[in-house]
Write a structure and sequence with these properties.
Elements lengths: L1 H10 L2 H20 L6 H23 L11 H19 L12 H14 L18 H13 L3 H26 L2 H13 L1 H5 L1
Helix pairs in contact: 1-3, 2-3, 4-7, 4-8, 5-6, 6-7, 7-8
């Protein structure tokens, strides 16, 4: 109980509230006054820091800090290691071909739009994207990888493979938390082995 109170005091502190309001306000002000999108990346970073501050503020209400003992057993760590290795190998061994087929929307979002963002041809990174149908979140993430590692087929697919690995681990933790370790393990393995999850 004492540990939980300390966690609430830590995460629900006035500093977190200040950062939440500060970064959110800076992001909004930049977005409003920067009509030429010269400071778009600063605005995006401030927005992300605002989200992180908000998450830190709400953590005590969302999570019981007395984590179940099943998360700290030897069996849990072995199962987690197996799931992680299986997810890593299954998502990276086929990286030359999956995820994403090299045609249609995937090429536009992960390829063309990402290149336009890093080459500054797409100035408004907060727009709805092509056809005003969806945002530019995928091109933003892929664009960061292009900027850091250069453009190639592998870099084009790498961000999606990371998300795939994170999905599998998230399922493992959620099902283990809600049910039991055995269910969490087999749920994660089933998701990792699913062809549709690998393909998309």
């Amino acid at each position: 109980m004492i540990n939980r109170i300390k966690a609430v005091e830590l995460f629900g502190s006035n500093k977190s509230k200040f950062f939440f309001i500060f970064f959110g306000s800076v992001s909004l002000l930049i977005s409003y006054f920067d009509q030429d999108f010269n400071y778009k990346w600063i605005s995006l970073i401030c927005y992300l820091l605002c989200l992180i501050s908000g998450l830190i503020l709400t953590l005590p209400k969302l999570i019981n800090f007395n984590f179940p003992k099943k998360f700290f057993t030897r069996q849990f760590l072995i199962a987690l290691s197996i799931v992680f290795i299986f997810a890593l190998v299954s998502r990276l061994i086929y990286l030359k071909d999956f995820p994403f087929v090299a045609l249609g929307d995937q090429v536009r979002d992960g390829g063309l739009n990402a290149l336009q963002i890093i080459n500054n041809q797409q100035k408004n990174i907060f727009s709805y994207g092509r056809y005003s149908a969806h945002g530019l979140i995928i091109p933003q993430v892929t664009g960061i990888f292009y900027y850091l590692f250069g453009t190639s087929d592998l870099i084009y697919r790498f961000p999606a493979s990371i998300v795939g690995i994170a999905d599998i681990l998230l399922i493992f933790f959620l099902v283990t938390f809600c049910l039991n370790l055995k269910s969490g393990f087999w749920s994660a393995i089933a998701l990792a082995a699913m062809p549709l999850h690998l393909f998309y």
